[in-house]
Each structure stands twice: as structure tokens, then as C-alpha cells.
Amino acid sequence: MNCKTRPILVGEPYGVWSGRYFSEQWFDKTSFDIRGNIIFTKNYPIHPKKESRSAKVIFNKKLELIKAGYANQDDANYFALKVLQKYPNIANALVGRFPEVIIDEAQDTTEIQMAIIDELVKAGLKEIILVGDQDQAIFE
User: Which end of the chain is more exposed for a tag (fewer CB within 10 A), N or C?
Assistant: First the structure.
């Protein structure tokens, strides 16, 4: 994250996020896609068009707050993926410590979360149990 302090997780499930300015109020409603683009999250369907001036201001504020050490849960997933990709020895250590992984509500796993699992598989993870029901999916 390139921040100077330990990151602080904000927004749900950690608490309500509220910013002082319009652009800060959107921090917990934005994150990164798998390619690193800032996007509006799926759990907040009403937002400015991503090409609009408002969206650009919101996205710039997102980067500013990330650099200041703030992250929401979706951001944490994205940065975890980046760490595993950059430092495979961390994935190796995780697989050594946790040789079995159980994923409950697997139907709701995001693309980034699946990419994290893929990194663990590359590191040697062999036992994965997926528990879910595709008829109950909350995402597309």
C-alpha cells in the first residue's frame, strides 16, 4: 500500500465509514478489480458513471486514503493477492502452516479471492473443500 503506518481496516464489517468530504464518503464503496483498476463495488449499485468527473475525484481520493493507510475488506483482499504474487515464499509458508482450506459460501467467492486460492494451489495447496450452493449466489 506504500503507507508509512500499519494499515487500518475501515467500513463493514469493521464499522461504519464516513468521510468529511463527498469523495471520502465513497471510500468503502470502491476497491480494485483483479487488474488493479479502481472500481465501484458490487454491493453498492448506485454510483456515478465511472468516466464522470465525480468518479475521477472519488478514485483519486481512494488512492490518497490508501496511501494514508486506510483499506476496506475488498482492498485487503486485493493487496493480499498482490503480496502472494510478489512474494511466493509467503504462499509457501501459508500452505505449510495450513495444508487444508475450507471455503464456506463458495458461491460468493470473488474473482480476487479465487486468484488468492490459485496462488496457494501454485504453492502446493492440495486439499480444498468448497461448500456452497450456486442457487443462492449473491453475485453474478
Answer: C
